[in-house]
Design a protein that fits this description.
The protein has 453 residues and is α/β, with parallel strands linked by helices. It contains ten helices and 15 strands.
């Protein structure tokens, strides 16, 4: 390695008279449009970023049609622009060489190592606005080494320059920083200009550093190249496979459908609890319990204005006037209860023990029901007969059928068509009250009515 360093410097000294930055007249490189960081899904690869720039008098010479100095400043400006604004790293900016009017020192620390800020870095870069003075790259590397004494983690050091006036001190400084921090520090020399010998010196710096890579400035002459370099060395884009804005490593709900709104854990939000995620729900704020379609819009199968899932009387005939539960409005609604099963339970329709005949109280309630059915000619009913739990089960089921049949016949005699009525016995099932008391058993000897399609 020592042989390589010595040879590189010797070649530079021999060839300097015939090569290097051109001495022809050239102009500053226009800044152009800086690259824009176009995403937030990234993971930092380093904790510290140090940029060292050659601002000595040799940088006034040409690199192509533009000065080496302006080419360097252009790349650095675009690097800072291409970094994520909220990236959690420390940054520093050092220069070697400048006009004596700026400082008598051969090198400057324009920005101490501190939390990255685009504006602060840009202000530091503006402190040396034109080249001048001698090159002491070794001193800037030593300053970088000292800066790292109070930090931890990985560090990337970018060195920009034409490679002129490099000597053994530069390589000694590289050895020093590598000895102190090993592969936690990687060095990336960027050679600017036309000097073959200067290029060899910068390549030698990269080789001596061990961890790092050599670049030629012309390879970084466009925004995509700069972003690509940074994405490989300073930060990396991370995966968000389902595209919900939460990276895979933090996403507790992978595979979220595209367009769904998610929380900070990447889990879809369903504000109205209808099973269709916010962002995909075309009918937000659906009432709780309503059945919805694939778009999150409530379904009203019978078209009565009450959503499925909330409709206690599904399949209401079209045109039937219904209440808030989706059940037909009854003429004597204060005497009727809509059960949790959607059946109509009339007060007064009860039977004596082991009886299936219609008493006066039951007849009065059935007359009111008949009037309702005449007002709503589309309604069809299943007449459901019930018993208490006293006695033989088979006998009770037969008795419940008789009760349902007797009610059906009574309604038919009141002018209700038989094709609108179906009778069925359910025995002691679905009790309305306890069978342990006389009162409870009396309530269970009843008939209920279920609206049919």
């Amino acid at each position: 390695m020592k042989f390589f360093k010595t040879t590189a410097i010797a070649l530079f000294a021999i060839g300097f008279l015939v090569s290097g930055c051109s001495v022809k007249q050239c102009s500053d490189l226009p800044a152009g449009n800086p690259p824009v960081f176009d995403g937030s899904n990234y993971s930092k690869k380093v904790d510290n970023l140090i940029i060292i720039a050659d601002t000595s008098s040799s940088m006034e010479q040409c690199s192509g049609n533009h000065t080496c100095f302006s080419a360097t400043q252009n790349i650095i400006t675009k690097m800072i622009s291409a970094l994520p604004s909220d990236i959690d790293i420390n940054s520093a900016y050092l220069t070697y060489g400048h006009l004596m009017s700026i400082s008598p020192k051969p090198n400057l620390v324009n920005l101490e190592l501190s939390k990255f800020s685009k504006s602060r870095f840009n202000n530091a870069q503006a402190k040396v606005s034109e080249p001048g003075g001698t090159s002491r790259l070794d001193l800037s590397i030593d300053d970088a080494c000292n800066m790292l004494g109070n930090t931890s983690g990985k560090t990337a050091i970018f060195i920009f320059g034409d490679g002129r006036d490099a000597n053994e001190k530069v390589f000694a400084s590289i050895d020093k920083i590598k000895g102190a921090y090993g592969n936690n520090v990687c060095v990336y020399p960027v050679h600017v200009g036309n000097s073959v010998e200067g290029e060899k010196v910068f390549a030698g710096i990269a080789s001596s550093a061990g961890c790092g890579k050599f670049y030629k400035a012309e390879s970084l002459n466009n925004n995509e190249a700069i972003k690509g370099m940074l994405a490989g060395l300073v930060y990396t884009k991370v995966l968000d496979s389902d595209g919900d804005g939460v990276i895979d490593s933090l996403d507790k709900c992978p595979g979220t459908p595209k367009g769904a709104i998610v929380d900070k854990y990447g889990c879809p939000i369903d504000s109205d609890g209808d099973g269709v995620y916010d962002g995909l729900d075309k009918c937000p704020n659906t009432p709780k319990g309503a059945i919805v379609d694939k778009h999150g819009c409530p379904i009203d199968s019978d078209g009565d204005g009450v959503y499925d899932g909330l409709d206690k009387c599904p399949n209401t005939p079209k045109g039937t006037k219904v209440d808030k539960y989706g059940c037909p409005v009854l003429s004597v609604s204060d005497k009727v209860t809509i059960t949790e099963r959607g059946t109509w339970l009339y007060k007064g329709i009860q039977f004596g023990t082991e009886k299936d005949g219609i008493n006066a109280k039951t007849a009065a309630a059935l007359d009111e029901l008949a009037a309702t059915l005449k007002e709503n000619k589309n309604i069809k009913l299943e007449v459901q007969g019930y018993t208490d739990s006293t006695g033989n089960s088979a006998y009770n089921y037969k008795l419940s059928e008789k009760r349902a049949d007797s009610v059906k016949k009574y309604l038919e005699n009141k002018g209700i068509s038989s094709n609108r009525l179906v009778s069925k016995g359910y025995g002691p099932s679905n009790p309305r009250a306890t069978n342990k008391t006389v009162e409870g058993r009396a309530l269970n000897r009843r008939v209920e009515f279920k609206p049919l399609n």
